[in-house]
Design a protein that fits this description.
603 residues; mainly alpha; 29 helices
């Protein structure tokens, strides 16, 4: 393990007049009280296109701002207890990741509901299925690690489903990342300011949203855990550190223990997620190129386990998707452009999209400034720069379902946040720094770093929660979909505009699901021109005793409008045409949507 950098917390003489008033306990308690006040007075029953940004009570913003100021003041206090910084970071995670769980009566994100359906399948069937039985959903059975673990947890807790933990999973996910991040950062510095500022920057810049109930959330934490083990335990010792033969024998024994742990972590990553093992291998390969981390064990272990899984359990999926994957290799422009998915429409959607992009761009720019500004730190923490840059080639490998650019940003973030924090902190006044610069860090513009941290912290909210109108499904919408699925006989078909609604994959092993906005534009235009004829034709192939259901919900309308898939007037026209047609019968409805069934005699 490399020798840590000298503490960077040597402060300029003197402190602001308000510093003594900002006692960590009082500021933390007031910030959390403001958050609690805001939670009790926020109404999310009628979200607009700005999502939680305009819905949340102003006390929330005051609490978040106060928490950020208190965190910065705590770090600049040389006599503050070291536990105050982690306390503030945990409070930040609560305000960031638990707000939605407190405000919304049902879990967010259609993909979280999809993953709950996979867990439910394991609990119901007690086995994995193949593609012949469940089609595209077989991909989850070929990477079952996360779902099997969740099904086991549900059994141990005696719960009915994983829905009980779905809403709180973003907070759990954020807490899981703290330990590997701390291990990574402590590998290269003992400066508590740099470590915890890096963690703070990571938390506020991690807006991509992969912390929901998903395999990626766990695989990402395991990915960082593998990197922490490699960076701390697999670096070549300096010549001055070499000891006698007995010590080297003990070192080999300890190395064997770490290799076992490393193997277990890699296996957990490989069996849980498709993309993360690839990101891990390119990161390990980047480290292998350095002189210090040329131990072959991590890279070979990850490559062998990943290849073995691809050639066995994951082979059916890879065989079907390999042609498309090969065609996308090298198409960086196409892979990046599809990363923004559909085109956001409306002021709220566009503003949230730009807030997220500017937040990520600012952190990356700060990381460049920090690396250039701190040559000593850049030299010692070069592995973190390599880890930050390693995911970039994946942009030329695949679009990953229009999400590759977001995943690349997320995997770059741990290293980028560390150097972005270095750019925000005052220059170290260590002997090495004085030799390099010849003078102490000037005190002018000391207000810029905390202001940048505050702006970035506040920008997280529109980046992360600005599209909650799409992501939130009220209880009435959940009840409507549940009514349809529960009454559907085996081999039925549920048709909807798109998959943005709760339980969109419920009972997928016995009920088929079809979303017409996934089709090519020509077919969608045909449905818009003559909804009843086109939809009835698509749904008429269902054989008895199965039935064909058509579902319109609030979530579908929000997604189609805000992402520019269809205009509200077009969706309303489709729904009115179906409602007036004698070919369809209304079977369920409430203020969140309506469901129809294609009549038996007309199929």
């Amino acid at each position: 393990m490399p020798e840590p950098v000298t503490d960077l917390s040597d402060l300029p003489p003197g402190r602001p007049w308000w510093h003594a008033a900002l006692h960590p306990a009082s500021v933390l308690l007031v910030a959390l009280a403001l958050w609690g006040w805001a939670m009790a007075r926020t109404d999310v029953s009628d979200l607009d296109d700005f999502g939680l940004v305009t819905a949340v009570h102003p006390a929330f913003w005051a609490g978040l701002a106060l928490l950020t100021v208190g965190f910065w003041a705590t770090l600049r206090g040389p006599r503050r207890h070291p536990l105050w910084a982690p306390a503030y970071v945990v409070a930040l995670l609560v305000m960031e990741r638990a707000t939605q769980a407190v405000l919304y009566p049902t879990p967010l994100y259609a993909w979280a509901w999809k993953h709950d359906a996979v867990v439910d399948h394991l609990l119901t069937a007690g086995r994995l299925e193949n593609a012949d039985a469940i089609g595209d959903m077989a991909v989850y059975d070929q990477w079952p690690g996360f779902f099997a673990a969740q099904a086991t947890l549900v059994r141990l807790l005696g719960a009915d489903s994983a829905a009980h933990v779905m809403a709180w999973w973003p907070l759990v996910s954020g807490l899981m990342l703290l330990l590997p991040l701390l291990l990574l950062y402590r590998t290269f510095t003992e400066d508590r300011r740099l470590i915890w500022t890096g963690v703070w920057v990571f938390c506020v810049a991690n807006w991509v949203g992969q912390d929901y109930f998903s395999p990626q959330s766990v695989a990402f934490a395991l990915h960082l855990g593998v990197l922490a083990v490699v960076l701390r335990r697999y670096g070549r010792p300096d010549r001055s550190d070499r000891s006698d033969r007995s010590d080297r024998s003990d070192a080999r024994q300890r190395q064997a223990v770490w290799t076992v742990l490393l193997t277990l972590l890699i296996v957990a990553v490989v069996i849980s997620h498709q993309l993360t093992p690839g990101m891990l291998i390119v990161s390990l390969a980047a480290l292998f190129l350095t002189r210090r981390y040329r131990d072959r064990i991590p890279l070979v272990t990850a490559s062998v386990i990943f290849l073995a899984w691809c050639l066995t359990a994951a082979l059916p999926f890879l065989s079907a998707t390999m042609p498309d994957m090969i065609r996308s290799i090298g198409d960086i422009g196409g892979n990046v452009s599809t990363g923004y998915g559909a085109t956001p429409t409306g002021t709220g959607a566009v503003a949230g999209s730009w807030a997220a992009r500017l937040l990520s761009a600012s952190v990356l720019l700060l990381a460049v400034v920090g690396a250039l500004r701190r040559p000593v730190l850049r030299h010692r923490a070069m592995p973190l720069l390599l880890v930050a840059a390693a995911p970039l080639p994946m942009l030329g490998a695949s679009s990953y379902g229009s999400e590759m650019i977001f995943r690349v940003l997320m995997f770059m973030l741990p290293g980028a946040a560390f150097f972005a924090a270095a750019a925000l902190l005052p220059q170290a006044r260590t002997p090495t720094a004085r030799e390099e610069s010849g003078r102490a860090e000037p005190r002018r513009h000391l207000w810029l770093p905390p202001l940048a941290l505050l702006v970035g912290t506040l920008a997280f909210v529109p980046s992360y929660s600005g599209k909650d109108r799409i992501s939130y499904f009220p209880p009435a919408e959940v009840d409507l979909v549940r009514q349809v699925v529960d009454r559907a006989p085996d081999d039925s078909l549920v048709v909807a505009a798109d998959r943005n609604y709760p339980l969109a994959f419920a009972d997928y092993w016995r009920v088929d699901h079809y979303w017409f906005l996934d089709d090519d534009r020509e077919h969608v235009d045909a449905i818009v021109r003559d909804p009843v004829a086109a939809l009835a034709r698509d749904m008429s192939a269902v054989e008895s005793p199965g039935r064909a259901y058509l579902l319109f919900t609030r979530g579908q309308f929000a997604d189609a409008e805000m992402n520019g898939l269809l205009e509200k007037g077009q969706l309303d026209r489709i729904r009115r045409s179906v409602d007036a047609s004698p070919l369809f019968e209304r079977v369920a409805g409430n203020d969140a949507g309506v469901a129809y069934v294609l009549k038996e005699r007309d199929r």
